[in-house]
Specification:
Strand order of the largest sheet: 1-2
Shape: flat
Helix content: over 70%
Oligomer: single chain
Strand content: under 5%
Largest sheet: 2 strands, parallel
Structural class: mainly alpha
C-alpha cells in the first residue's frame, strides 16, 4: 500500500483532465479578445486625450470564468465517472493503492486544472487592461471577485464529485447532483419567503439562512456576470457567502472521499450504495416540492376557509402532486422499475416529517419575533 499522496497517481489525475483542460484553456484565451483588442488599439492610435477613462467593474474581469463551471463538471466526470462502471471499479480496486489515495490524487489533479486556468485567465485580463491607461479597476474587488468565481467552480465540482461516489448509475448521479446543488437553496428560499409573508416585521436579511438564498448563490451570480456586465448585479462579493461556499465545497469533497472508501463494490449494479441510501435520495429529491406544500398551507389557509378553493388548490395540491410524482419517477428511472409499491407508499409518509418541521419552524419563529 502506498501513502496518501502518490506523484504517479497525481500525474494520472492530470492526464485524465488533459483534453478538457486544453479545450477550456483555449476558450479562456479566446475570451481575452476584448482586452487584447483594446490594448492593440491603444498602441496603434496612442493616447490622443480624446478617450475618457473607463472604470472596470469586477464583473468585466471575471465574467468569462462562468465557462469554468461546466468544465468543473467535466473534470469531475473525467476523474470519477469510472465509479458508475463495474469493470472500471474492479480495475481501480485491484491497483496497489488505497481508495482514499486514488480519490485524493485525482482530486488534486482536477483542482490543479480548474484553479490554474482561472488564475491564469484572470491574471492575463488584469495585465492587458493594466497596460492600457484608459482602463482602471479596483484590484482588491477584482481579487475578491476571482475568489468568488473559484468558490463557485469548486462548489459545482464538489457536488458532482460527491454525487459520483454516492450514485450507481447516470440517472441517480444526475438526481443526487441536483440534490446537493439545489435542495438547500430551494428550502432556504421557501422558508425566507414564507416567514416574510406570515411575519412581515421579521428582518429576513438578518437571518443566517440568507446566505443560502438565491441572492447569494455564487454559481448563479457567476452565470449572471456573463450576461449582465453593465449594472454589475451578477457578482457576489460578500465575504460570508464566499467563505460559506468554500467551506461547503471542502466539506463535500471530504464526504466524497469517505463515501468512496465505504462504497460497496456492487454499487454500479444498483441505483445507490444501499436500499437505505436509495430511500434517502428519494426523500431528498422530493424535498423541494414538499416544503412548497407546507408553505402553501401556511400562506393560503385563509383562502381555503373563505371558500377560495382554486387558489388553495394551486398553492397546495399542485406541489403535493409534484412531490408524489417526483418520488415515484425517481424510483422508476433510477432503479429501472417500481418494486414493492406498498413499501414505497409507506416510505412516502416520511415526507410528512420535513413538512411538519418546516411549518413548525415558521410558526415558532413568528411567535418568537
Amino acid at each position: 500500500m502506498k501513502s496518501l499522496f502518490s506523484f504517479r497517481l497525481y500525474r494520472e489525475g492530470l492526464h485524465r483532465q488533459r483534453l478538457g483542460g486544453v479545450v477550456a484553456a483555449i476558450v479562456m484565451l479566446i475570451s481575452l479578445n476584448n482586452p487584447i483588442t483594446s490594448l492593440v488599439t491603444y498602441w496603434m492610435v496612442g493616447d490622443t486625450g480624446m478617450v475618457d477613462t473607463i472604470a472596470l467593474t469586477p464583473t468585466h474581469l471575471i465574467s468569462p470564468l462562468c465557462l469554468l463551471m461546466p468544465y468543473a463538471v467535466a473534470c469531475s466526470a473525467a476523474a470519477y465517472s469510472f465509479m458508475l462502471q463495474r469493470n472500471a471499479c474492479d480495475f481501480y480496486d485491484a491497483l496497489p493503492y488505497r481508495r482514499l489515495s486514488i480519490y485524493f490524487n485525482f482530486l488534486l489533479g482536477a483542482l490543479t486544472w480548474i484553479v490554474g486556468i482561472a488564475v491564469v485567465c484572470f491574471g492575463l485580463r488584469c495585465l492587458f487592461y493594466s497596460l492600457c491607461p484608459h482602463f482602471v479597476y479596483d484590484l482588491g474587488d477584482a481579487i475578491l471577485a476571482l475568489v468568488s468565481a473559484v468558490a463557485s467552480c469548486l462548489f459545482v465540482f464538489a457536488c458532482s464529485t460527491l454525487a459520483y461516489t454516492c450514485a450507481g448509475n447516470k440517472v441517480s448521479y444526475i438526481a443526487i447532483f441536483g440534490i446537493f446543488f439545489l435542495d438547500a437553496r430551494v428550502v432556504a428560499s421557501a422558508w425566507l419567503d414564507t416567514i416574510g409573508e406570515v411575519a412581515p416585521h421579521f428582518d429576513v436579511s438578518a437571518s443566517p439562512l440568507v446566505v443560502l438564498s438565491w441572492d447569494y448563490f455564487l454559481p448563479w451570480s457567476l452565470l449572471n456576470s456573463a450576461v449582465d456586465i453593465i449594472t454589475d448585479k451578477g457578482v457576489v462579493l460578500n465575504p460570508v457567502a464566499i467563505s460559506y461556499y468554500f467551506i461547503t465545497a471542502l466539506g463535500l469533497m471530504i464526504l466524497g472521499g469517505l463515501a468512496y472508501v465505504k462504497r460497496p463494490g456492487t454499487t454500479p449494479r444498483n441505483p445507490a450504495t444501499s436500499p437505505q441510501m436509495q430511500h434517502l435520495w428519494r426523500m431528498l429529491v422530493t424535498l423541494p416540492f414538499a416544503v412548497q406544500v407546507a408553505s402553501g398551507i401556511l400562506l393560503h389557509t385563509n383562502d381555503f376557509l373563505e371558500g377560495d378553493l382554486w387558489t388553495f388548490s394551486l398553492a397546495v395540491l399542485l406541489p403535493l402532486v409534484a412531490t408524489i410524482g417526483a418520488y415515484f419517477l425517481y424510483e422508476l428511472f433510477s432503479a429501472g422499475k417500481l418494486r414493492q409499491i406498498k413499501s414505497l407508499l409507506l416510505h412516502l409518509l416520511w415526507m410528512l416529517v420535513p413538512m411538519v418541521v418546516f411549518a413548525l419552524s415558521v410558526l415558532i419563529t413568528k411567535w418568537i419575533v
